[in-house]
Amino acid sequence: MSSLSRDEVAHVAGLARIQLSDDELETFAGQLDSIVGFVASVSEVAADDIPPMSHPLPLTNVTRADEVRASLSGEEALAMAPASEQQRFAVPRILSED
Description:
- 39% of the residues lie in helices and 4% in strands.
- A hairpin with a 2-residue loop joins β1 and β2.
- The protein has a domain at 6-43: Histone, subunit A (Orthogonal Bundle).
- Strands 1-2 form a two-stranded antiparallel sheet.
- The radius of gyration is 30 Å and the shape is elongated.
- By secondary structure, it is mostly helical.
- α1 (6-15) packs across α2 (22-43).
């Protein structure tokens, strides 16, 4: 016998806006009870000595270190642009004023 009642399954189905027949309600009650049991068994694992983690493998950041390097000045960058306006790149409008 399922610990989830047919009415509870019907309530969840109603929240999900799913129409189920009586046979489907009985079937899903048993299936959902099994799923709840499987999830409960995970909490029974003896993991008190295992620290919480986001990934089972040790990961390190592989990005390069930040280094200050010479770059273009604003004037040099705008000198190469097809158009500029008010010390900014001028680009075609893609959205209307509306």
